Amino acid sequence: MNLLLVEDNPKLREALKRGLEVTARVRVLYDCARGEDAFAFCVQNSALQRAAPDAILMDVQLEGAMNGIQAAVALRREFPRMPVVFYSIQDDDAYYRDFLRSGILSHYAYVKKSNYLLPEMILPLLQDARAGRGFIDPEIETRVHAVRTRDANDPMALLEPNEQQVAKLLAQGLSNEQIAARMGFKDRRTIARTNGQIYAAWGLNDNATDEKIARTRAALIVRAQRLLRWDENGVTYAQNERGEWIAWEG
């Protein structure tokens, strides 16, 4: 199996490379510390009409602008369903949230570094990912589920800090011009673009027929402090403790 190895700790990267190659079942085509370098390698390989790696073994926390999950998303845009095995010791909501948003459904594994980082345990994960299967370490699955549940009831958790501030001002009834002035932006179109990101994060693009309706519904979500949905008849729904969407009366 030809492997791309992405790990920002040089000692661990070398140990993984040696350990896997000693099995005589893996050849590390390239190893690097950044997702950007992994992406560049695959694109260059493709341009030179060389074979793509059979799989990627990648830490979640990396040097550079992209974490491992973001790097995998970028790679899969160019190389659909590229098999990836993620590993991490990080217990950070941001990584689990990135994973949930990534839409990765198959050809992957996501495991705790401390549980699986031995060649004899990595190889089956790589083979399963290559065969199209998905696997999440039970410890990580528990945390991913916790983040999903919490985010379902905390709309602000789905927004970046500046988007949170805009959403709160929007809920106070301020216009885009007023929000721009309050936040020190010279171009009110910046607020309009930010509003669009808020609507998308909260699913309002799917059920609002125009910007005024989306804006009103966003304000309701801020005031309710929970995600809401609307059907085609304008009936409002919220999630209960079991994750079921039920009619919401406010």
Shape-level CATH architecture of the largest domain: 3-Layer(aba) Sandwich
Q: Strand fraction band?
A: 15-25%
Beginning-to-end CA distance, first to last residue = 56 Å
Sheet with most strands: strand arrangement = 2-1-3-4-5-6
Q: What layout of secondary structure does this protein have?
A:
Layout (H helix, E strand, L loop, with lengths): L1 E5 L3 H13 L4 E6 L2 H13 L7 E5 L8 H11 L5 E5 L4 H10 L5 E5 H4 L2 H12 L3 E3 L1 H15 L8 H11 L4 H8 L5 H13 L9 H14 L3 E3 L5 E4 L5 E3 L3
Parallel strand pairs: 1-2, 1-3, 3-4, 4-5, 5-6
Antiparallel strand pairs: 7-8, 8-9
Helix pairs in contact: 2-3, 4-7, 8-10, 8-11, 9-10
Can you tell me about this structure?
By secondary structure, the chain is α/β, with parallel strands linked by helices. The protein folds into two domains: 2-151, 3-Layer(aba) Sandwich (Rossmann fold), CATH 3.40.50; 155-247, Orthogonal Bundle (Arc Repressor Mutant, subunit A). 50% of the residues lie in helices and 16% in strands. It contains eleven helices and nine strands. It has helices spanning 10-22, 35-47, 68-78, 93-102, 113-116, 119-130, 138-152, 161-171, 176-183, 189-201, 211-224; strands at residues 2-6, 27-32, 55-59, 84-88, 108-112, 134-136, 228-230, 236-239, 245-247. A six-stranded parallel sheet has the order 2-1-3-4-5-6, with helices on both faces. Strands 7-8-9 form a three-stranded antiparallel sheet, covered by helices on one side. Helix 4 links the parallel strand 4 (84-88) and strand 5. Helix 2 (35-47) runs parallel beside helix 3 and helix 8 (161-171) crosses helix 11 (211-224). The longest helix has 15 residues, at 138-152. It is elongated. The chain starts with a strand and ends with a strand.
